[in-house]
């Protein structure tokens, strides 16, 4: 993934003989950093030629027509929070009516796309949220099964623990828990990666993902009041390769992961 982001005239620097694959990865990362890979992800006009086309710029906005009635999307469609009272909104086929979810407007069908999500609020430690992507055809009515088989690839924070929504869920041992996460979607390679925006460390990567030819949309879940999920325009300073040997990943569709029961009103 990252080797392809290095301009052709510098790829010769990756051909240094080595028997250690990680050294090649390391060189690729350093070259990508030299040419400001982050600017490609954020779509800045000063991104070097070749990089901007490798990682298409994506400005993600939320689609309020898909938001659960207890979720309120900001006027500029850049953040979402949960309220205690249901909003007076039409119950359309597009709207989630049971799970506290909202989708992004964006439809991604090919290429690579990255966007930054930040979790804000005073109750971060005991909050409950998830970020990722989903097929456009994801079920909107009733409780949804949050798993790759149902067309959702995501990481979830709940009860002071972060996990990937495989089945069974895969615990992720990270400290501190990241609250600024890059979601990186590669439609061509069938891969969804999550990266800590503060230090560039990979959180988790789903590989060999089958999108069934559908468009893919950003997906968000928020169960806790006093918390906001915010979409940010930012430039990452560091990124790790999407997959390194030994990293956790899910290469097969997983069985159902039932959506947890709705928490009490005090959540």
Automatic annotation (TrEMBL):
Region Disordered, annotated ranges: 244-267
UniProt cross-references to PROSITE patterns, sorted A to Z: B302_SPRY
InterPro entries: B30.2/SPRY, B30.2/SPRY_sf, Butyrophylin_SPRY, ConA-like_dom_sf, PRY, SPRY_dom, TRIM/RBCC
Biased composition (Pro residues): 255-267
Residues in coiled coil: none
Gene3D superfamilies: 2.60.120.920
Residue ranges constituting the B30.2/SPRY domain according to the UniProt record: 40-238
Protein name: B30.2/SPRY domain-containing protein
Protein's organism: Anas zonorhyncha (Eastern spot-billed duck)
